[in-house]
Amino acid sequence: MAVSIKSAREIELMRESGKILAKVHDELGKAIVPGISTKEIDILGDKLIRSYGCIPNFLHYNGYPASICVSVNDEVVHGIPNHHRILQEGDIVSLDAGLIYQGYHSDAARTYGVGTISKEAQSLIDVTRQSFFEGIKKARAGNFLYDISNAIDEYVTAFGYGIVRDLVGHGIGTKLHEDPQIPNFRQKRKGIRLQAGMTLAIEPMINIGRADVEWLDDDWTVVTEDGSLSAHYENTVLITEGDPQILTML
Ligand code: MF3
Ligand code: CO
Q: Cβ distance 45 to 36 under 8 Å?
C-alpha cells in the first residue's frame, strides 16, 4: 500500500492528537512511583485520554485488553497491565500509549526508572531515547526511509546493545498502523523516499543484552530471550521539507 501524505487540515488534526498524547504521557510519567500497580497506570491513562474527549486506540486492538501497554524490566513492549504487578524501586517501566482525536491517531512511548535505578539501566534508557533523536536527524523530505534505520543502528550498536528486530515503527494517520514499516536496524536497501506530509511513528526498542525476543503465553507480552532489561522510546513525527516535527512532545 502507498504511504499516505496528509493534507494541511489532516496535519492540524494529527498535531492536536499528538499534543493531547504528550500531555497524557506527562501525567503518566508523574505517576511512576514504587508501589503503583501496572493496572493503576492503565486506568489513569485511560481516564486521561477520555478526559480530552479522545479514544484509546490500543484498547481491543487485535484483542489487546488495555489502553496503555505497561512493560517492566525484561518486558520489551505490549505488557498487559495487572493489579498484582507492583512497581518496585529499581525497576524500569515502558509506557506505550496512543489515542484517536477526530479520527486521527497518535502513538508514543517512554521508559522511566522507578525510584533510584542502576547506572546501567539509566544508560539503556538514555541511549534508547537518544537513538530516536539520531534517527530523526535523517527524517526529512528527499532522504530515504532507511537513512533513519541506519542512523539508529549506528548509534545504538556502538554501545553494544541489542536492537529488537521483530518489531518495527510504522506510518500512522487515520489508522494506528499504516505503511511504511520502519526498522530500527541497518538495511541493505534505501527504502522509499521521504516526502513532506508523511507522519511516522518511530520507535526504537533496545535491549541491554541480545536482540532476541520471545512472546509470553498471553501472546502479547514481548520479553527479552536472555532476561536482560529493555527500553522503548517512540514519537509520532511529521516529515517536512525542513526539520521534522515531533507531534507527541510538548
Ligand atoms: N506502539 C505500539 C505499536 O505501534 C502500540 C500498539 S500495541 C496494541 O505497535 F496494544 F495496540 F496492540
Ligand atoms: Co507504535
A: no
**Is 206 within a domain?**
yes
Element (H, E) at 22: helix 8-30
Average pLDDT on 216-245 reads 98
Taking the centre of ligand 1 as the mean of its atom positions, its distance from the CA of residue 32, in whole angstroms, is 21
- For residue 3, being part of any structural domain is answered with no
Phi, psi angles (nearest 5°) of residue 98: -155, 160
Residues surrounding ion ligand 2 at CB below 5 Å = 107, 201, 203
Instruction: Return the pLDDT at 1.
Output: 73
Residue 216 is part of which domain span?
Answer: 8-246
Share of the chain above pLDDT 70, in %: 100
175 lines ligand 1 (CB under 6 A): no
User: Does pLDDT of 173 surpass 80?
Assistant: yes
The Cα–Cα gap between 57 and 176 comes to 7
Overall size of the chain counted in residues = 250
Q: Is residue 240, in this structure, part of any structural domain at all? A: yes
Q: What percent of the chain has pLDDT over 90?
A: 99
Residue 53 placed within a domain: yes
CATH number at residue 190: 3.90.230.10
- Mean per-residue pLDDT, 39-66: 98
Taking alpha carbons only, the member of 155, 66, 48, 50 closest to residue 147 is 155
Tell me if residue 211 falls in helix, strand or coil: coil
Nearest CA to ligand 1 atom 6: 58
What domain count does the chain have? 1
Q: What are phi and psi of 92, to 5 degrees?
A: -115, 145
